[in-house]
Amino acid sequence: DNAGNNNGGDDTDVKETYVVTVKDADGNAVAGVEIAMIKVTAAGEMPYPGAKETAADGKASFEVKAGTWKASVEDVPAGYVLPEGSFNFTDKAVTITLESLPTYTIKVVDQHGNAVAGAGVQMCKKGESGVCVAYRNPTNENGESSMQIADGSFEAQVTRVPDGYTKPEGYFDFEGSAVTGYTVIIQVTKN
Fold this sequence. Notes:
- By secondary structure, this protein is an all-beta fold.
- 0% of the residues lie in helices and 47% in strands.
- The protein has strands at 15-24, 34-41, 44-47, 52-53, 59-65, 68-75, 86-88, 93-98, 103-109, 120-125, 144-148, 154-160, 165-166, 172-173, 175-177, 181-187, 189-190.
- Strands 2, 3, 4, 6 and 7 form a 5-stranded antiparallel β-sheet that branches.
- Strand 15 and strand 16 form a beta hairpin.
């Protein structure tokens, strides 16, 4: 007697495991990505409570009721672009590839091409002098200061130099691409 069993094609109590794998463009696992599940119904899409972070292997597993599901990325670690939209599962699995944020490097050298450590630098939106990114890291021993930030149109400025140097005035353009990274070399004068 199956009177107490709910087997008449209604599989709402059947649990299935769905696995989301997150990798970077080089195929490496990305840990710390917040993944949410979305239940797809005739009435539309409904968020499922309980987002999870990917583990060191780049995977997050969800034990959910049988049905149609999608995954969405809610948050990513520093250095990655947050993808928009949702991702469809195939055979209860989906792999999501994250784009890395481009790297912007400001290099400060003296008139002889020698690296200048300890120079203060900043990035500003191109054409909007004074609209600067909170980026005032001093240059390292190689005369460089780098950061990853959403692709945009930026220019660089030297805000201060170590004793014995004179800083140039104005803003300087980056060269490169989102794939290779952007670099600007700014020359200061050693007194």
